[in-house]
Amino acid sequence: MAESHEHLQTLTEIRSLMERSSKFLSLSGLSGISAGVVALLGAGVAYARLQNNNLSLMSYERITRLNGVARQEMVNFLILDGVIVLIAALLLGIFFTVRKARRLGHGVWNSISKRLVWALTIPLVTGGIFCLALIRFNLIWLTFPTTLIFYGMALYSGSKYTVRDVEYLGLSEIMLGLIALFWTGYSLLTWAVGFGVLHIVYGTVMYLKYERDELKR
Question: Mind telling me which residue stretches traverse the membrane in this protein (predicted)?
């Protein structure tokens, strides 16, 4: 009986070692939480600005009523707001991920993390170019669901190199983006839910599932 238990423990340890060698496990739940908070702040700023312009719902009908100058000002503001949110979320994500990796004694930049970054980059860059084309042809109302869809595709693509929870987040983002395609009057709301609320939920689950016990050790 004792020998059987030892064999089972050995197999468990081998499986754990194989998982650590084939997947990037240093993603921090705090990265997701911080990204979600930053996204909600960015969405709040956008809502306050657009509401003043009577565009709080970001519907196709309201956008088409804008003249060229007003539309360009709105686009410039949204791009600036999105870039600031992206940079802040990335910096916080890198900070918490590096901190967790150091605490666990893991390297951050290795062959697995490079594959993860590459898997994320292709859908994200493709989606970014696609969004620029939408903006170029004044299809602004489609950029919000498009960012959710391509971001979800990036997460789904990269999930094979990290924990399974990332796959669930990716699928959730894709489904929300598809719904937003047909619910255009609430593009800013769905964007806030996708990048804000879902990230906070995902980050909290990740933290409770993988990090809370590690901090007690």
Answer: 24-48, 74-96, 116-135, 141-159, 189-208
